[in-house]
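Researcher: Hi, I'm a grad student and pretty new to this. My advisor asked me to get structures for two proteins we've been looking at. I'm not sure of the right format, so I'll just paste the first sequence and hope you can take it from there.
Model: That works fine. Here's the first sequence with its structure tokens right after it:
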Amino acid sequence: MRKSYSGEFKAKVVLEILKEEKTISQIASEYGIHPNQLLKWKKRQ
């Protein structure tokens, strides 16, 4: 079964990416999400 994430959670993570304080890989490992998934969310925002 796939995990689903709320829009609020995705927005929070994307904002963290946009701050550029951490790398995509660091953020991905913190949240347990694949880096490619984070990049897809970033493109949609």
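Researcher: Oh nice, that was easy. Here's the second one.
Model: And its structure:
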Amino acid sequence: MRTWSVTRSPVPPSLEDPAAWALHGASAVSFAVDHDTYGNDDVAYTAQYLHVGLTRTEYTTRVLLVAHRSDLASPTAQDVVGLANLHMQRASNERMAYVELVVHPEHRRQGVGAALLAEAEQVARAHGRSVVIASSDHRGEPAADAPGALEAPTGSGRIDSAEPGAAFAHRHGFVLEQAERYSVLDLPVDPDLLDRMHAEAADRAGADYRLHAWRDSLPEEWLEHFAVLETRMSTDAPSAGLELEEDVWDAARVRAAEERIAAAGHAFLVVAAEHEPTGTLAAFTMVEMPHDRPAVVFQEDTLVLREHRGRRLGMLVKADMLRRLAASHPGAERVHTWNAEENSYMLAINVALGFRPTGVSGEWQKHLT
């Protein structure tokens, strides 16, 4: 039986450096897996994105592990058959390690994943982490009565327990805690639909709310307000049984996030709703657009603070965002988003705007011993 070695990726000064072989190999595996799962590479990791993760560690420690044959003294990018991408927050959730494990379709069921996971857990322990969160990607959601259908403990969302990612997680001691719906919106959206949704939401919100939009950099005056929204994202968004704690942001972290997005080769756009009587931000939505893939848009965080819910602010900021995208990025063809299956309000907004269910992500948790 073939054996595998797991190597920690160096942190090269540039992607042209010979030490960047692991980054390029990991990216190639990510592209192959996404083609196998979804038929496209829209959300696959680029080498540039992975490199930025390893070099910008002010708030998160990131470790990239790659697997290759054990008999190779000097592996190259072409020899990489799998990866484990770990990130560990430095100022909050200090018990947690997040692991994304990816194995090339041609090398599954050969011990690659087990070798990567064993090393990833060792890295997590070395950083004082006792809980690991991982995910499994599934092309679709099985019917409730389908053989092997596994429902999340929340009662919302199912995955096929027989599919490789789920079977691997269960076999290695992980417990399913949550299901996230993966949805895609084909662009452009009918302008009449967007105008109607925007008008209805604005009427419901009333005169107390005012929209702002920023691209690539937030004005200084709104940094602390935006930090509050990102902090609340860690507590207000559904997290099921995942043992997550508050993740505190401040103005410096907002600026660091902007710099990281730019370094990854992405632009971003934020639409936020100000509650004018208090001068604070009540809701926001954010998207990222890779410069090298103009057809692709990633929906990042969307949040309405609990105290401002019931006024259709979620629909207001998202409809406004899509109208702005149509004007500023006419070449965009698809928006990708993930939402907890129990987040019925946000899912209803997405469905109304035309997002179509494309897959399900299982969110798994394991306590290290």
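Researcher: Is there anything I should tell my advisor about the second?
Model: You could mention this: The first strand starts at residue 4 and ends at 8.
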